[in-house]
Amino acid sequence: VQLQAFGVGLVQAGGSLSLSCGASVSIFSLYAMGWYRQVPGQERELLATLTTGGQPTYADPAKGRFAIARDNAKNTVYLRMSSLKPEDTGVYYCKATTILRRHYWGKGTLVTVSS
User: Which of 31, 36, 64, 75 is most buried, judging by how many CB atoms fall within 10 Å of its CB?
Assistant: First the structure.
């Protein structure tokens, strides 16, 4: 499974940004898709997960501000972010999990939130 993330990398504080992640396989065949980020000086952290046929789940940094969505026809998962803060600056990764629970990561895309 190959993943490639896209998104505009620079936004002002309070603004919105949408990231997309395209997969090389049918995401309908996958167990789950997720978004993570790594901010400077910290470990990679989970933001949101969406299982096939399930409801999205969000970690605390994403609750109320971020939304994960998928388009099975385009084999793409999205992360829509709003009310962005400078502390949201980091590298954002998408991850695919197969039904055998194997994980595949995209390369990551840098998001910079200016104050």
Answer: 36
**What proportions of the chain, in percent to the nearest 5, are helix, strand and coil?**
10, 50, 40
Rg (CA), the chain: 13
The sign of the torsion formed by the CA atoms of 51, 105, 58, 9 equals negative
Model pLDDT for residues 51-61, shown as the tens digit of each residue: 998 899 999 99
Report in angstroms the alpha-carbon separations of 8 from 54, 78, 86, 106.
Answer: 28, 13, 15, 16
Distance, in Å, from the CA atom of 90 to the CA atom of 78, rounded to the nearest integer, reads: 17
Reduce the DSSP state of residue 9 to 3 states and report it. coil
Dist CA 102 CA 115 (whole Å):
38
Nearest CA to 77 among 22, 7, 1, 26? 22
